[in-house]
Amino acid sequence: MIEFKTISYDTVQVGEEFKSDDLLIKPEDVETFAFAVDDHHPWYSGDSPYGGPIAHPVLLANQALMMRHSRYIIPAGLHAKMQMEFLEPLRPGMRVRSYGKVIDKFEKRGRYYMVTEFATKDEESGAVLVRGSEGGKQYSVRLRDLVKRGDISANVQVRPGDVLIVPQSWF
């Protein structure tokens, strides 16, 4: 049985490895994502130069972010500087999984940083589909104070490329 600790700078160790749950890419996932990002390229629903429909390249961006959820409780937080390289097209019917490793962590100006490299692979062939790093700032946001109590001091500056993760229990 896995014990879930709340993630923190002190609990995560350099060299620690993660893997996501596997994910079957379904045609409705591709369609829903295209709708959500308002990108209805014909390759996502019909023929493409890759021999059939493909998925939007960033469909699996959250897959890399979710790796730590298999071991830690992740409170609301802010992630920045996520970089990805798309090596192979994502196709409906693929079963994929992301693998990652913490390669560095440090503190700078009172903020905690963790750098994680990751690769998302086709589980059947082992081919690397997406690889990258997620390594900017990661820090907790006092979401309850900000949203429920209107406490402006809990606000944080969000910049282009930042990803705000809100726990599902807030919906």
Map the helices and strands.
Blueprint: E1 5-6, E2 17-19, E3 23-24, H1 27-37, H2 61-65, E4 72-73, E5 77-79, E6 82-86, E7 95-108, E8 111-122, E9 128-134, E10 138-140, H3 143-148, E11 163-165
Parallel strand pairs: 1-4
Antiparallel strand pairs: 2-7, 3-7, 5-10, 5-11, 6-9, 7-8, 8-9
Quick structural overview:
The chain is mostly beta strands. The chain is built from three helices and eleven strands.
Walk me through what this model shows.
This protein has 171 residues and is mostly beta strands. The protein contains 3 helices and 11 strands. It has helices spanning 27-37, 61-65, 143-148; strands at 5-6, 17-19, 23-24, 72-73, 77-79, 82-86, 95-108, 111-122, 128-134, 138-140, 163-165. The strands form 3 sheets. Strands 2, 3, 6, 7, 8 and 9 form a 6-stranded antiparallel β-sheet that branches. The protein has a 3-stranded antiparallel β-sheet with strand order 10-5-11, with no helix packed on it. Strands 1-4 form a two-stranded parallel sheet. Strand 7 (95-108) and strand 8 form a beta hairpin. The radius of gyration is 17 Å and the shape is globular. The relative contact order is 0.20. The model has no long low-confidence stretch (mean pLDDT 83).
